[in-house]
Amino acid sequence: MRRSNTSSRRTGIVGIAGSKRDYFLAGETGAIWSLNADSLIVQPIGNDSDGIEQLYTSLNGFIAVTPEKEFKSIAKDAITSEYFLAGHKTTSDICFRDSLILFIDTVEATNAGPLLGYDLIEESLVLREDSQKYLAIDINEESEVVAFNSKYEIDIFQFAD
After folding, report:
1. Which pTM was predicted?
2. Which of 8-12, 44-48, 61-65, 75-79 is predicted with the least confidence, judged by mean pLDDT?
């Protein structure tokens, strides 16, 4: 496995995060690049030695899901990183609502589990919906959580603001 963010070898892009002009690309080997959408210039910014399977921008940098399905916080410089949510794993995409990360905890099963919410500011689990086993989640235009459960039904949850 390559442990660098620069190389003439090809690598697979596993994640794209960002908005409008500034995008960040994650390579399967852990490399993170910035992409200027106007000029299409790609610049290496760092590398995570554990590898990356999913990449998202967050308040202070990036949230990554590793190949071992664990959660990792990576600083904007892509040098400093740390694991969080010990004992939890996910095999599906995660969603964000402000500082809240929503994910399906698949530590006990390979593809279904309870819906959990982790607050990045409070650094704690603040939501747990375990009446069903969920396969996939997303947030719709009305900021509702749309969850697909293991009975192949769609559940919709609303936040009380």
Report:
1. 0.82
2. 8-12
Output the DSSP codes for 85-132.
STT---SS--EEETTEEEEE--SSSSS-EEEEEEETTTTEEEEEEEEE
Asked if 85 and 118 touch (Cβ cutoff 8 Å), the reply is yes
Residues forming beta bridges with residue 154, ordered by sequence position: 148
Q: Domain range for residue 101?
A: 87-161
d(CA 116, CA 85): 11
44 with 71, same domain: the answer is: yes
Q: What does the alpha-carbon distance between residue 146 and residue 79 come to, in Å, rounded to a whole number?
A: 34
Among 100, 96, 93, CA closest to 120 = 100
Q: Considering 84, 115, 134, which residue would you say is the last residue of a domain?
A: 84
Task: Read off the pLDDT of residues 134-153 as tens digits, 9 standing for 90 and up.
Answer: 999 999 999 999 999 999 99
Q: Are residues 5 and 74 in the same domain?
A: yes
- Choosing from 35, 62, 84, the residue where a domain stops is 84
Q: CA-CA distance, 78 to 113, in Å (whole number)?
A: 30
